[in-house]
Amino acid sequence: MTRHYDRLWEGRWPSASEFCRISRPNFIHAVRACRVVRNSATTGFALTGYCVGDPGLMLVLTENQEIELELPNEKSASRIMVAQLLAKRRTQYSLGKNIVLPDEEIDALIREAVRLSPSAFNSQSSRVVILHRDENQKLWDIVKSELSHIVEGEAKKHSFRKIDSFAAGAGAVLFFEDRNVIRILQDQWPLYADHFPDWSEQASGMAQLSVWIALAGIGIGASLQHYNPLVDAKIKRHWNIPDTWRLRAQMPFGSNEAPFPPKTIISDGDRFRSFFR
């Protein structure tokens, strides 16, 4: 499907909000999150983005100020989109607060990503606390306070610089697993009782990946940190977290303030075994 808009802006590039006005409602998240990039296939610029429910979206702005909204073939686009989103998920330590989307929309996206994440026996054992702006700063103040008791000298300076980079972001996601859910499942299915803690960890990992990919898909950087159990007690007291929730990871997020370094990938021969009839 392609729609054309001729000469909407005379002699200037449109802003993200202006793109929103010409986009269909279900494209709005993709449009607001996209960035202007050089597209060698056109004589102008292209803006690309994705949103839940759409296999892919490209907006092309030519030098003649013409705009094309194009959806690729659904089957081919779904394969491309999954690979692209996974490739965009990278560790980002240089975070900022320069995000176009409102905090409420990011919050809603994180919640949806966790809701859609799989779990063994559909246990839905993952629990998430989302901290924005000043609340994010409080988290890393707690981490610094607890670390100061066990590190010193150059190690302390290095750790604090790293923590400051997380505090510079727009927010953080705290991932918990509810041990009460695990205990209930162990009582209901005693044959598998020993496995439910492992399956809970797998569910948490999938929720973490889902959120990370969702954030990467709208151009937000993130990383995964593990200051637990050092900070567990203070975090639970400060945000009134239930005792049955066990902290598993922290994901600071924000705008990407530095390019990603090249990623080293080990040989497929060391990693995969495929068998075909």
Automatic annotation (TrEMBL):
Its main location: cytoplasm. GO terms for molecular function: oxidoreductase activity. CDD domains: Frm2-like. InterPro entries: Frm2/Hbn1 (IPR033877), Nitroreductase (IPR029479), Nitroreductase-like (IPR000415). GO terms for cellular component: cytoplasm. Gene3D superfamilies: NADH Oxidase (3.40.109.10). One of its GO terms (biological process) is cellular response to oxidative stress. Residues 87-254 form the Nitroreductase domain. Keywords: Cytoplasm, Oxidoreductase, Plasmid. The keyword Cytoplasm applies. It is found in: Cytoplasm. This is Nitroreductase domain-containing protein. It comes from Agrobacterium fabrum (strain C58 / ATCC 33970).
